[in-house]
C-alpha cells in the first residue's frame, strides 16, 4: 500500500509514482544549471521531507541541503 504519492506535470502530461514507508519517495526537478531534489521518508514514526538545492543536470557542484521538515513545521 502507498504511503507516499508524487505527481509531476510536463509536456507529455501528468505522471504519478507511489512509495511505501520502507522505500520512501524522491524527485528531482531541474534545468541544466539549477534544480531541487526532495526526498520523503518515514523515520521513527513520522514522515520527514528533505529539500536540496542542486546544480541541475550538469551536476558540476555538490548539492546544498536546505532543510529537513516534519508536520510539526507546519504550525
Describe what this molecule looks like in 3D:
With 75 residues, the protein is mainly β. The protein has a domain at 24-74. It contains no helices and six strands. The protein has strands at residues 4-10, 13-19, 25-30, 35-43, 46-54, 64-69. The strands form two sheets. Strands 3-4-5-6 form a four-stranded antiparallel sheet, with no helix packed on it. Strand 1 (4-10) and strand 2 (13-19) form a beta hairpin. The radius of gyration is 14 Å and the shape is globular. The protein starts with a strand and ends in a 6-residue tail after the last strand.
In short:
With 75 residues, this protein is an all-beta fold.
Please name the defining characteristics of this protein.
about 80 residues, 4-stranded antiparallel β-sheet, about 0% helix, single chain, mainly beta, two-stranded antiparallel ribbon
Roughly how many Å apart are the termini?
Answer: 28 Å
| Fraction of helical residues | under 10%
Beta strands, count: 6
Shape: globular
Q: On the 0-100 scale, what is the average pLDDT? A: 96
Strand sequence of the main sheet, in spatial order? 3-4-5-6
Low-confidence stretches: none
* Radius of gyration over C-alpha positions, nearest whole angstrom: 14 Å
**So how many helices?**
0
Strand content: over 45%
* Run of helices and strands: EEEEEE
* Helix vs. strand class: mainly beta
The main sheet comes to: 4 strands, antiparallel
Amino acid at each position: 500500500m502507498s504511503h507516499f504519492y508524487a505527481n509531476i506535470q510536463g509536456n507529455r502530461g501528468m505522471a504519478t509514482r507511489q512509495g511505501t514507508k520502507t522505500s520512501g519517495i524522491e524527485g528531482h526537478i531541474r534545468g541544466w544549471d539549477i534544480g531541487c531534489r526532495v526526498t520523503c521518508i518515514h523515520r521513527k514514526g513520522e514522515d520527514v521531507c528533505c529539500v536540496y538545492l542542486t546544480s541541475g543536470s550538469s551536476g558540476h557542484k555538490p548539492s546544498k541541503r536546505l532543510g529537513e521538515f516534519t508536520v510539526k513545521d507546519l504550525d
